[in-house]
């Protein structure tokens, strides 16, 4: 039943429906009416449920939002409260620390200031000593000299801190003449005693006071009583004034006749003070003394005096900085009885205020200002010593930084902080001299002290740390809020996704599968939880790599897949492979590890892309073998077709990738291809548990596919009968070509095999399409020829060295030369005349070494690159079409030399050595060590370029004959080069003349900065190229003597670096020239056969006196024993080639042993091959040299798959050529 409101709305909204209802009732169709009512009721119910759900969802969303907002507000308020609290606490702590530190410092300063008069009591005891001496010995004043005065006065000065103490007795007019006689008598011996005592203490010899010391009145040790006028001129004291106060005994004694016996009544205020002392019998503080700043040699007498006194007090030369000093005058009595005593002398003391402020504060308290004010009633203020300056501010300011004191200026100069001022004053009650009453201090002159903090002291204790801590706390809370909001967003998003996915999954499963099917799909474990079936779990592992169930207690994840096709692909030529019809050379044995991994990574990544596109599952890679399968984890109806197509795509991609990489990885890279084997059948697939669980295949199908690969041929897809049957059933019979022979597979016996060519159209095989045409389909885009790729590779290597030169030049910033960079040897001079025993390497430059980094981003002008490519191409064309001495051989010499240079640039250092170098003080020690380790070769990119250049040109225009034969055939050339190193000199001159042509001017300017660098490069090239001539006895003797000189003592520290560098460069080219003998056996065999062919060809043409077959076996043994193995040993003894020296030596020894065992049979085989005309390969004329193979079968295979080319060099017995039979016929 509808609600009344709903019915009313329904009636008012649509009259036609009401009419329809009336008709229904009139027809008395109860069933129809009931059905309609039920439908309306259900719609209403659904709408109501949806509305309620939306309302509840909205309400819950609002509640969650409110809760989220509340949490954020609580976090914000908490952050504010904690931040404010922390800021207040830290600020208060700093303020309290400031107060405690300042008040403690101020108390120490004031206490030290107030204690000055207590210290001055030690001065008054000196007056007591004079009184006691006169009383005990009955001497009459003023004729008294206190014994041991310097010791007593020095002790008093030390205890009081005074700079100067002097005694001025009272001299009247009556005893004036007697006084002059007294001071010039033997009683002035205290002066000599003082001088000796002060010399012992190191107090003498500070400055020269010539302008002050001498009065020029007499030449006596002590002048008559005198004083100085305003100009500093001394004059005799007159007898009209009385009394007199001549300065007598002083401490320290300043060695001058001007200071002793000088009347101290020199200033008006001093006269008044002394009169007061005489009258009141009290001590008086005088006015401030000051003079211009200066040292003890200053022409101003008072400046020089003050600086001298300060230096003698400190024990070292101290300048006077203009700081204030003060005088103090104390009475000396003739008796101890106060009623009967009278003043008979004056003690004059000079006080340095700065000395009383030193060493008060600890070193961590800095920035305290001290202002001392003074006032002397009834006396003239601010009198500068011996000057008339008046009117300045009374007082002076000091700055205390820890124990140090600095005088700022006269007057009150403090920065502020008046509210923190602390005051003190000089206590002037009396001086304790050991008597009953002591000596009273007249308060006429009062001194007050004021202590202030500076801004520096304030800033030290009021830092930004409270604000930093506060903002850090705020940042932490803000980060926490952000993390909370982000996490809340993720949770909400995850919940919505899970809910949506669960709803959809439930709906799909419920609608598609009945209960019994779902039960089979989803198994339950022992706890009743849903669990994927075995096959579903295996599929999950294959697709997602999920290994969550590989524990020892988990059920095995494995299953049988009856319809699968397995693929094995091996990179042909990557490593040495032996088979019935093939022996492929090892590309990887001639490369650096980094180059090997670049090739494998590039190929495998390309295969992975193809596998995804063809729905092929990659199982694993083992070395240079790629394994894949189709038909699992998802069954595939066309598993065999997909796999064969994938195999064909892999062949094409291999061809493209290797040709693209040849420019960077070197010759023969483009000759690499795949050898593929395919078989179809059932496969067991599963996950092996262990530390590194992985998906694996098992079964006879896998073994058979592996046999198809190992018995296949390079560049071909070999499939089994089982796979062929599937292809026939799929109407792909035109892809198949039966193999001409049966396959004898290990463990399988005789098998029928087929070659698969998915690119073949129907009828192409029947029409006689050649295998060459099929192989030509491997390249779907035009590419460079093998010869052009060799040229590009050499160009890239030389460009790499040029970039090193430009990079170094960019940091050293030298000035380029404008001269024309051309060099031709003078007439009559040949390259042999240019050989030097030592080629000088550059000195170590730390600035350049520090900047030596990656230089790949250095750009080279396009014109330079074009000229370089043209030059290398021209050099290639200058090589003749020999079997061995050809451009291909030169490229492999380049590759071998580059490998050795790489090992020089990166010397082997242990972890301990590296850490030791890194711990050294200088950052450049590691670079300096590498420089010394490599004898400077690493620091000279021009030398690296010279090695590459020399390796390229060293056999240009080689005729394939010995130098002796060339002397017969080319008498003019032999005469030109004096019958020595003819082939080497000819190659060098041809290549150099070409290099000096005008068309390569830009190339030379890029390589060389000036003519000096060009000549240095020429010298390197001459030495390196001519090092390949190992037959010249003079050169061999020179090399042996240099070796003994450089490397005889390996522990020698003081060795000739340039000599060793020259020898290393020569050994690089020598080792590279015969590197095939120090590489893998198959590499050695390949180039040994080529050399044998070349020499046999020369013999048949009458250019070699003896048939190589008659001496080849024993000649090779002698060659190994007398040259190769010693040369490899020298590489090791050089100590700069790292593991390469061990590698070369090991291969040399192994190849020698292998040749000793099999050499005779191999010579017979090579002779047999030479007798079969079908075995001969065509040779190039003046164009670039083509690849030469060893036999017809290998040649046919290489035509289809491109043969692998490796390093090849010829034999050069350096030390004992006469013992090598193979070398007697000509240059190897």
Automatic annotation (TrEMBL):
InterPro entries, per database record: A/G_cyclase, Cyclic_nucleotide_synthase, Nucleotide_cyclase, PDEase_catalytic_dom, PDEase_catalytic_dom_sf
Keywords: Lyase, Membrane, Nucleotide-binding, Receptor, Transmembrane, Transmembrane helix
Region of interest (Disordered), ranges: 1-53
Superkingdom as given in the UniProt entry: Eukaryota
Membrane-spanning segments: 67-89, 468-487
A GO CC annotation given for this chain: plasma membrane
Compositionally biased region (Acidic residues): 12-30
Guanylate cyclase domain boundaries: 565-709
Database matches in Pfam families: Guanylate_cyc, PDEase_I
Compositional bias (Polar residues): 34-53
Subcellular localization, as worded in the UniProt entry: Membrane
Listed GO biological process terms: intracellular signal transduction; receptor guanylyl cyclase signaling pathway
SMART domains per record: CYCc
GO function term, MF aspect, one: peptide receptor activity
Main location class: membrane
Entry keyword annotation includes Signal: no
UniProt name for this protein: Receptor-type guanylate cyclase gcy
UniProt source species: Seminavis robusta
Record lineage: Eukaryota, Sar, Stramenopiles, Ochrophyta, Bacillariophyta
């Amino acid at each position: 039943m509808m609600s009344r409101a709903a019915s009313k709305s329904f009636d008012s909204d649509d009259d036609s429906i009401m009419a329809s209802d009336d008709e229904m009732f009139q027809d008395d169709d109860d069933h129809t009416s009931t059905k309609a009512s039920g439908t309306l009721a259900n719609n209403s119910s659904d709408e109501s449920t949806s509305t309620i759900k939306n309302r509840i969802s909205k309400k819950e969303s609002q509640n969650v939002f409110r809760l989220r907002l509340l949490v954020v507000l609580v976090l914000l308020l908490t952050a504010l409260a904690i931040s404010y609290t922390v800021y207040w606490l830290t600020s208060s702590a700093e303020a309290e620390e400031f107060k405690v530190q300042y008040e403690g410092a101020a108390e120490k300063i004031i206490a030290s200031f107030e204690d000055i008069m207590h210290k001055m009591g030690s001065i008054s005891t000196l007056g007591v000593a004079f009184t006691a001496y006169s009383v005990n010995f009955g001497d009459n004043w003023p004729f008294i000299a206190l014994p041991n005065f310097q010791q007593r006065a020095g002790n008093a000065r030390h205890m009081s801190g005074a700079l100067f103490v002097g005694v001025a007795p009272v001299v009247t007019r009556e005893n004036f003449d007697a006084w002059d006689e007294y001071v010039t008598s033997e009683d002035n011996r205290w002066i000599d005693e003082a001088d000796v005592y002060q010399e012992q203490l190191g107090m003498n010899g500070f400055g020269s006071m010539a302008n002050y010391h001498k009065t020029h009145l007499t030449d006596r040790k002590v002048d008559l009583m005198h004083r100085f006028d305003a100009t500093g001129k001394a004059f005799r004291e007159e007898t009209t004034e009385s009394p007199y106060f001549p300065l007598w005994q002083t401490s320290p004694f300043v060695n001058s006749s001007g200071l002793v016996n000088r009347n101290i009544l020199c200033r008006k205020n001093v006269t008044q003070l002394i009169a007061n002392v005489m009258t009141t019998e009290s001590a008086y503080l005088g006015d401030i003394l000051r003079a211009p700043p200066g040292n003890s040699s200053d022409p101003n007498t008072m400046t020089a005096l003050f600086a001298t006194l300060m230096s003698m007090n400190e024990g070292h030369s101290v300048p006077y900085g203009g700081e204030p000093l003060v005088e103090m005058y104390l009475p000396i009595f003739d008796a101890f009885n106060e009623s009967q005593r009278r003043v008979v002398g004056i003690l004059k003391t000079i006080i340095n205020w700065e000395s009383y402020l030193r060493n008060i504060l600890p070193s961590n308290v800095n920035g305290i200002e001290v202002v001392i004010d003074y006032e002397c009633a009834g006396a003239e203020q601010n009198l500068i010593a011996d000057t008339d300056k008046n009117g300045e501010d009374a007082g002076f300011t000091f700055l205390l930084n820890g124990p140090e004191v600095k005088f700022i200026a006269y007057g009150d100069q403090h920065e502020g902080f008046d509210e923190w001022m602390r005051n003190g004053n000089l206590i002037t009650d009396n001086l304790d001299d050991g008597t009953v009453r002591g000596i009273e201090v007249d308060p006429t002159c009062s001194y007050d002290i004021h202590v202030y903090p500076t801004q520096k002291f304030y800033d030290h204790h009021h830092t930004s740390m409270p604000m930093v801590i506060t903002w850090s706390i705020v940042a932490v809370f803000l980060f926490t809020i952000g993390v909370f909001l982000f996490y809340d967003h993720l949770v909400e998003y995850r919940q919505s996704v899970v809910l949506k996915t669960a709803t959809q999954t439930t709906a799909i499963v419920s609608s598609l599968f009945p209960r019994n099917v779902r039960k089979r799909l989803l198994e339950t474990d022992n706890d009743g939880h849903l669990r994927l079936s075995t096959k579903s779990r295996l599929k999950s592992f294959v697709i997602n790599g999920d290994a969550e169930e590989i524990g020892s207690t988990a059920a095995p994840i494995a299953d049988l897949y009856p319809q699968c096709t397995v693929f094995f692909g091996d990179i042909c030529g990557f490593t040495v492979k032996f088979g019935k019809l093939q022996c492929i050379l090892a590309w990887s044995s001639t490369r650096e590890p980094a180059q090997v991994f670049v090739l494998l990574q590039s190929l495998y990544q390309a295969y992975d892309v193809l596998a995804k596109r063809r729905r092929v599952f990659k199982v694993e890679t083992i070395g240079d073998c790629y394994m894949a399968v189709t038909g699992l984890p998802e069954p595939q109806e066309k598993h065999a077709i997909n796999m064969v197509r994938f195999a064909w795509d892999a062949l094409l991609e291999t061809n493209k990738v290797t040709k693209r990489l040849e420019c960077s990885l070197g010759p023969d890279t483009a000759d690499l291809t795949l050898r593929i084997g395919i078989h179809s059948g059932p496969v067991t697939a599963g996950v092996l548990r262990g530390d590194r669980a992985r998906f694996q295949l098992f079964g006879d199908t896998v073994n058979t596919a592996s046999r198809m690969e190992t018995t296949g041929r390079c560049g071909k897809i070999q499939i089994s009968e089982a796979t062929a049957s599937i292809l026939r059933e799929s109407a792909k019979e035109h892809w198949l070509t039966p193999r001409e022979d049966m396959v004898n597979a290990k463990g399988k016996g005789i098998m029928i095999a087929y070659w698969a060519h998915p690119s073949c159209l129907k009828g192409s095989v029947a029409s006689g399409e050649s295998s060459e045409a099929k192989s030509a389909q491997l390249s779907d885009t035009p590419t460079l020829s093998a010869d052009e790729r060799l040229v590009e590779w050499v160009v890239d290597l030389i460009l790499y060295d040029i970039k090193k030169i430009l990079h170094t030049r960019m940091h050293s910033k030298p000035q380029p030369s404008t001269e024309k960079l051309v060099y031709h040897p003078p007439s009559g001079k040949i390259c042999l005349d240019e050989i030097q025993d030592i080629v000088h390497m550059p000195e170590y430059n730390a600035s350049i070494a520090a900047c030596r980094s990656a230089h790949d981003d250095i750009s080279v002008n396009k014109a330079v690159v074009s000229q370089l490519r043209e030059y290398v191409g021209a050099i290639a064309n200058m090589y003749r079409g020999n079997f061995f001495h050809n451009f291909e051989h030169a490229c492999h010499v380049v590759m071998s030399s580059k490998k050795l240079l790489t090992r020089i640039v990166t010397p082997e250092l242990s972890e301990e050595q590296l850490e030791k170098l890194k711990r050294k003080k200088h950052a450049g020690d590691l670079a300096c060590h590498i420089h010394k380790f490599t004898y400077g070769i690493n620091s000279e990119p021009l030398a690296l370029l010279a090695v590459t250049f020399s390796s390229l040109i060293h056999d240009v225009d080689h005729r394939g004959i010995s130098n002796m034969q060339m002397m017969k055939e080319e008498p003019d050339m032999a005469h030109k080069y004096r019958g020595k190193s003819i082939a080497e000199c000819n190659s060098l001159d041809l290549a150099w003349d070409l290099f000096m042509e005008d068309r390569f001017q830009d190339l030379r300017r890029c390589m060389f900065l000036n003519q000096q660098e060009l000549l240095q490069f020429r010298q390197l090239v001459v030495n390196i190229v001519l090092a390949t001539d190992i037959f010249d006895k003079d050169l061999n003797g020179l090399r042996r003597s240099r070796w003994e000189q450089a490397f005889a003592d390996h522990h020698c520290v003081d060795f000739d670096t340039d000599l060793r560098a020259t020898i290393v460069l020569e050994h690089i080219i020598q080792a590279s020239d015969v590197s095939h003998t120090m590489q893998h056996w198959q590499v050695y065999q390949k180039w040994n056969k080529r050399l044998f062919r070349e020499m046999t060809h020369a013999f048949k043409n009458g250019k070699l006196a003896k048939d190589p077959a008659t001496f080849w076996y024993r000649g090779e043994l002698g060659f190994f024993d007398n040259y190769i193995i010693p040369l490899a040993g020298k590489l090791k003894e050089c100590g700069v080639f790292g593991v390469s020296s061990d590698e070369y030596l090991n291969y040399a020894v192994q190849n020698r042993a292998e040749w000793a065992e099999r050499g005779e049979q191999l010579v017979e085989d090579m002779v047999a091959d030479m007798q079969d005309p079908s075995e001969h390969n065509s040779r190039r004329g003046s164009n670039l040299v083509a690849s030469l193979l060893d036999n017809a079968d290998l040649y046919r295979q290489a035509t289809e798959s491109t043969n692998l080319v490796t390093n090849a060099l010829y034999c050069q017995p350096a030390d004992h050529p006469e013992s090598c039979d193979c070398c007697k016929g000509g240059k190897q």
